[in-house]
Amino acid sequence: MLDTSDFKNGSTFEFEGQVYTVIWFQHHKPGKGGAVMRTKMRNVRSGSIIERTFKSGVKFREVEIERKKKQYLYNDAKNYKFMDLETFEEVSITAEKLGDTVKYLKENTEVEGLYIDGEFLNIDLPLNIELKVISTVPGVKGDTVSNVTKPATLETGAEVGVPLFINEGDTILVDTRTGEYLQRK
Predict the structure, then answer these.
(1) What is the pLDDT of residues 81-92, one digit of tens each?
(2) Boundary (domain end) residue, out of 124, 147, 170
(3) Which of 47, 62, 77 is the last residue of a domain?
(4) Alpha helix (H) ranges present in the chain?
């Protein structure tokens, strides 16, 4: 059994008949009453994200997820195709199940396939991924010291706020959990 005090990013458990993975949590102690755990969780099967608050001490059934290395190959109109790096078997998953992760998928990216009872459910992206800037407005000379950002469209179609010194053609590192710019490569 998994207690709310044992929550950490990546904890997987059963809640209301569905399997969820914790992607963010915060222990909160209000002025009155007992402590609570605020969470943001991803449904492993559907990919949808929900926010819930649990009272301290609530217990859940922990679920074991098997992880297998996969490589993203391509997508057709509805499905994203992945190759198992051990068996070289090709498997597919719908864009709806992947959710926002499709914004950071480029060909040949290695990911972890998530399996429960032998069923391929979803993927976990690497924490950071290198992507090329396809389009952005030019920065103004002298504005490189401030903390101002501008929108940039990446090779996968994702839009990210980047510092003013980033130009088209630059390769940047993006945090796949938050969608934030980390550094120029």
Answers:
(1) 999 999 999 999
(2) 124
(3) 62
(4) 95-98
